[in-house]
Amino acid sequence: MRQAGKPFPAATAGDGTAAAAPPEAVRTGQRDAFFDNAKYLAIVLVAVGHSWEPLRSDSRTVTALYMTVYAIHMPAFIILSGYFSRSFDAAPQRIRRLVTGVALPYVVFEVAYTLFTRWTDNAPDRPISLLEPLYLTWFLAALFIWRLTTPFWRTVRRPLPLALGVAMLATLSPAIGEDLDLQRVLQFLPYFVLGLCLRPEHFGLLRRREVRALALPVLVCACLFAYWAVPRGNYAWLFHRDSARELGAAPWTGPAMTLALFGCSVVLVTCFLTLVPNRRVWFTVLGSGTLYGYLLHGFVLQAVGHWRVWDHAWLHRPFGEIAVTVVAATVVTALCTPAVRRIFRVAVEPEVRWAFPATHPREAPTR
Description:
The chain is mainly α. It contains 15 helices and two strands. A two-stranded antiparallel ribbon has the order 1-2. The radius of gyration is 20 Å and the shape is globular.
């Protein structure tokens, strides 16, 4: 993946498609409140995690929280994206939706980020390349590939072990290259396939009393473990964008870490989803706009870096770190609102019916 300025680690966003609801979930119109709540809270974690990026070197606590967040938000969004992709069957109307909802926004924002970072990074000659995703756009490229392969994963026996095997093998090869950020596409693949394997009743299990009782203690223990691990490990494994050799580790470490991180992330995502309210709350309406928050908040972060805001010493102290967290959550919340969605809909959800035959049946709304 092409980098510019201070690198953005892995980030994600929901794809906005509809999903079947757990039995006890509360619906808001045609959408499910539980999933909208989960997507909103996950996009807040994405933005907060990115805002902590310049603060890590000065605080072991921030780094520990950063590691915990990165073990949750990316896998959570990919699992939900897989769950929402279960009905993808490569029919013409679904291919059309994939092109307009994923491929075209990828092209638009790949170009936009390249042009914008020519200014923020003082790199006027940065080339536009649709094969090397820049910053946040990698997720759209990955989602496009994952969703195209959905019929295959829905057909084979034991798809999850097979996907884990693919991810483990990917860590052994530093020669995969940066085209479409394929290393990350392969290493995150098991989370998408796990989502494809889930059913509404699995989400219903999250409401069980014993699961809810364990969620918060497990998350606290994860933060404490991350605090212990900060000076002892390499959290770049959480980004899933490099092979074992590129991280300076023995080849066998890659498959082992793939399995270990998958298990840890699934447990932490389960805890996260357990704490998500399954009723309509004030931020439920924002869940349908998380793709906007995801794609737009990167421009804010790039501008902040260009204006050297992070050079202020007070931001690297506890009060400043709290302020950064609150501001990041507030900004991404604002970017998910209906008003912002109306302004940027032409870029995030382009209407290109002219490009498709009129004989194709109109697909039911999925956002």
